From TrEMBL:
This is Aminotransferase. InterPro entries: Aminotransferase_I/II_large (IPR004839), Kynurenine-oxoglutarate_AT (IPR051326), PyrdxlP-dep_Trfase (IPR015424), PyrdxlP-dep_Trfase_major (IPR015421), PyrdxlP-dep_Trfase_small (IPR015422). Pfam families: Aminotran_1_2. SUPFAM superfamilies: PLP-dependent transferases (SSF53383). The keyword Transferase applies. The lineage of its organism: Bacteria, Pseudomonadati, Pseudomonadota, Alphaproteobacteria, Hyphomicrobiales. GO terms for cellular component: cytoplasm. Belongs to the class-I pyridoxal-phosphate-dependent aminotransferase family. Keywords: Aminotransferase, Pyridoxal phosphate, Transferase.
């Protein structure tokens, strides 16, 4: 038979799904896949339920319900000082992953180079390849995740069409500094490059820090698009509601791509997200505060067990070194040991690299109930204590 699409044929199942399957098989505490184990605010869910019953439940406008587009525009103004036209500069999508696909398919042509910063979210590479783009990878490396400016500058050329920037960054939990972002902006302007900004963790930033979109830097308003996620902002990841903000000239082709991917998103969920974006500042402060407490709870426990815990400025994730714990020589081996023998699922950080990845780090997800975090730590403690006794 004729071959199928080589970009997707034989591609490995996402590491998140693989570890989740192993977690179910071994009845493990799942700290691998990045989703909260408690649903988001009840008032938002009630708004969705009421809208589902009240209707209408037919196709909403392709760009999204006007009330949600207005809410996204207002959120941009409120949190980032960006003035956005909801009619021409906002698009609602069925999740941030769809938004990424729309942006890449609309802005990248065959042969265009796209700069990617590793470690990277696993959908970036296949989407760029499917668009015919040529990935040019630059990496940040643990434990400090420093951006190598010389390497980044060398990655840009006249062939570069776009950079895909994940900030705050999964899995590193890095928040790019203003200096780093300014350097990226200067390169984009110098080489006439678009910036596709995956900013789904924009409200999950800790220790009093604030997220600053690349779009707010001088010269970037007309060449950057930014992607947000209701799933992350409201702990409703199963809803798959995302949104794209950008200049009208770029939003037009992005909307055309969206037209042929999903066309639209459930109207009741859109109404509920519009309501949610209007919540007062206390909601967003409590969201970040609650996650900070969970981060600290897990970090203390892991450090006490002998893991080296890397700094975490945002997101749902802690990256840890496991040297000296006897879990195996690689991160994949360590994760397999933990899920099979300790009953705790984590994710190998090497899965977020294209090749030649550092193999001494694993990622734990902390957006869980306190008792789940405590249970995972207790299982890890019991396993590691038994291992040490056996090797003594």
């Amino acid at each position: 038979m004729k071959p199928t699409n080589p970009v997707f044929t034989g591609i490995e199942t996402t590491v998140f799904e693989t570890m989740s399957r192993l977690a179910r098989t071994h009845q493990a505490v799942n700290l691998g896949q990045g989703f909260p184990d408690v649903d988001g605010p009840e008032d938002i869910r009630k708004t969705a339920a009421e809208a589902l019953i009240d209707g209408p439940n037919q196709y909403p406008p392709m760009l999204g319900l006007p009330e949600l587009r207005k809410a996204v525009a207002e959120s941009n103004r409120r949190f980032h000082g960006l003035e956005v036209d909801p009619e021409t500069e906002v698009l609602v999508t069925s999740g941030a992953t769809e938004a990424l696909a729309d942006c890449i398919f609309a802005l990248v042509s065959p042969g265009d180079e796209v700069v990617l910063i590793e470690p990277l979210y696993d959908c970036y590479l296949p989407l760029v390849k499917q668009a015919g783009g040529v990935p040019v990878r630059v990496r940040v490396t643990p434990p400090d995740w420093r951006l190598d400016k010389e390497a980044l500058e060398a990655a840009f050329s006249d062939k570069t069409k776009a950079i895909l920037l994940n900030n705050p960054m999964n899995p590193t939990a890095k928040v790019f500094s203003d200096e780093e972002l300014g350097f990226v902006a200067d390169l984009c302007i110098k080489h006439d490059v678009y910036a596709i900004c995956d900013e789904v963790y924009e409200h999950l930033v800790f220790d009093g820090a604030k997220h600053r979109p690349l779009m707010t830097f001088e010269g970037m308003r007309e060449r950057a698009v930014r992607i947000g996620s209701a799933g992350k902002t409201f702990s409703l990841t199963g809803w798959k509601v995302g949104y794209v903000t950008g200049p009208a000239a770029l939003m037009d082709p992005i909307a055309k791509a969206h037209q042929w991917v999903t066309f639209t998103t459930p109207p009741n969920l859109q109404k509920a997200v519009a309501y949610g974006l209007g919540k007062d500042d206390s909601y967003y402060e409590e969201l970040a505060g609650d996650l900070t407490a969970k981060r600290d709870r897990m970090a203390r426990g892991l450090k006490n067990l002998g893991f080296s815990v890397l700094p975490c400025a945002a997101t749902y994730f802690l990256t840890c070194g496991f040297e000296g714990l006897g879990l195996g020589e690689t991160d994949v081996a360590a994760c397999e040991t933990l899920v099979r023998e300790a009953g705790v699922a984590a994710v190998p950080v090497s899965a977020f690299y294209g090749s030649d990845a550092p193999s001494g780090y694993i990622r734990f997800c902390f957006c869980k109930q306190d008792w789940v975090i405590d249970e995972a730590l207790a299982r890890l403690s019991a396993f590691l204590t038994a291992e040490r006794a056996e090797s003594a």
